[in-house]
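Intended use. Records like the one below are meant for learning the mapping from a protein sequence to its folded structure. Do not use them to infer anything beyond what is encoded.
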Amino acid sequence: MFNIKILFLLFITYSFMGWVMEMIATVVEDHEIVNRGFLIGPYCPIYGCCSIAIILILHKINNPIILFIFSILICSIGEYITSFVLEKIFKARWWDYSHMKFNLNGRICLRNCLFFGILGFIMIRYINTFFTNLYLSLNPNTLNIIFYVTLVIFIIDLVISFNVIFKIKNMSLKYINLDNTKEISLKVKEILTNNILTRRFLRAFPYLMETIKKSFKIITSKVRSKWFVCLKTKKYLS
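Structure written out for the chain above:
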């Protein structure tokens, strides 16, 4: 059961299922289809990571109350840590539950915690056995092919996605030395409209856009201050 190949395929499976649930949630709440995945492909790794943690820790637990409570704890800790780490790395909030009741620093909220508890219980009791047996029943050669192909695709996706995200993060720094606010605005608009992957990330995580706007307000303010000093100096010298 703890074969690394099986665990990876389960990780991808639950990441995909999480992506589907996120898509459904955006349709219900926002009445539009938005790819909410952190990566380009159809998967949300946080769901896969939490699912694997639940499988490894709770696979022998039969008590439904314990399953429910510990699923809440595992998923809540996972979501909180993910939010904290992403914010520290990219200097931006990827999601914010501050507007929801019973939230903790806007990173997790009671509604989602209860939802994750239910999902964890259902997964261990009814779903995981099916997928585990399905992958175990595969011919070793077939399993190897599926594993390595999926792994390569996932790694490529990871590299491309992080490259795009770091470009978004460094977008303001790239034009910090420009002296013309109009030039800065044109450069930003060019990046945001021409790169389809950038547009996809900003649409999926609107809080990133707020961070970019704040950064460019600071830059614009610095540029205007610089020009004001130059004009004052020029006027003084003349």
